[in-house]
Amino acid sequence: MGSALLLGLGLWLGSFGLGAAGAREQVPFWVRLSPEQVAVLPGHSVWLNCSTSCPLVEKPSLQTQLQRGQTLSGPCWVSYELLDVRARNSTASCSVTRAGETRGATARITTYKPPGGVVLEPPVLVGGVYTLRCHIIHVFPVNSLVVTLRLGGRLISHDSLECFEGQNMANVTVTHQWPARPRDLWQPLTCHWSLHLPGRVVHSSSAPVTLAVIAWSSQSKALACTSIAALGGLLLALGGAYLRRCLARKSQM
Ligand SMILES: *[C@@H]1O[C@H](CO)[C@@H](O)[C@H](O)[C@H]1NC(C)=O
Ligand SMILES: *[C@@H]1O[C@H](CO)[C@@H](O)[C@H](O)[C@H]1NC(C)=O
What we know:
Largest sheet: 5 strands, mixed
Bound molecules: 2-acetamido-2-deoxy-beta-D-glucopyranose
Low-confidence stretches: 1-24, 214-241
Helix content: 10-25%
Strand content: over 45%
């Protein structure tokens, strides 16, 4: 009944539109598809709402490679469910035609994968300096990741990977040097990650480790470096140099 009423209204407005075509062509109308950007877990569904300035004469049409689910509609909007989103990046475009003029709006749908784990290595003390190393395992998209280290609740490092260009899931290792000071002894150290996605932030942290004086021999230190290097192709090891390069590139843009 509702749709018959809508159709009747549409026909009436349509004939009005034809009768006054010259005037109506000048009338601007807008089309919005919201949210404009959204991040979902792979395999999940998402709702996109296409709305337009009233009246809705013709049903909007949606173009997307994604699988469609249910549809809901109201006076000047149609909401579409898109199912089983798996591609890293997809788009959906909604278009509305009124008095021969077509307008559209596009939304970007991305997928994300929160880390499969966050592991803080036991701090290694060499020459009065701790090497703190945190591994973030299997995360995507890397350029939305922020990693911080906190010691006794205080922030001691903050690394943003916004300049990272790789498009694949990656393991990220953040390494930070921290001077050994008596007051930090036995303080809990934690590694926190957050993914800054369109419309939301997801975050978590590692189990705490305490700063205890562990003096490694030069031999075991060499072994540790070798094992990291062996994973080199798979690991993204972040250092100050990388971040400086990244920031320099950003400031040029
Ligand atoms: C879609 O958007 C319209 C206009 O902003 C709003 O009135 C309506 O409640 C929305 N529908 C849904 C299902 O969110
Ligand atoms: C990431 O780390 C995990 C656990 O350490 C490892 O099994 C996996 O092979 C690594 N993958 C990549 C892409 O580096």
